Amino acid sequence: KDEDMDESGWKLVHADVFRPPSNMPMMYCVCIGGGVQLGITILFVILFSAVGFLSPARRGSLMNAILVFYMLSGIIAGYVS
Q1: Cα–Cα distance between 79 and 81 in angstroms, integer?
Q2: What is the pTM of this model?
Q3: Which of 40, 42, 60 is nearest to 50 (CA)?
Q4: Which of 1, 24, 48, 60 is 20 to 30 A (C-alpha) from 16?
């Protein structure tokens, strides 16, 4: 009976919490992470353009911003996936 008391709470579900998805787990994580990264990049570029930080008159500023936001949003995408 003492053994049953020890096996309670998180010990019962720890295998299910860290279990990978059953169907193509790596593809699921890659798609979710990539989608989040692209979504955040597009959102920030549109927001910064709307506010006025990115001007189409300055050559290359939009592409440079897209690359920087894509790189920085990889941190969040890695956490999400």
Answers
A1: 6
A2: 0.66
A3: 42
A4: 1
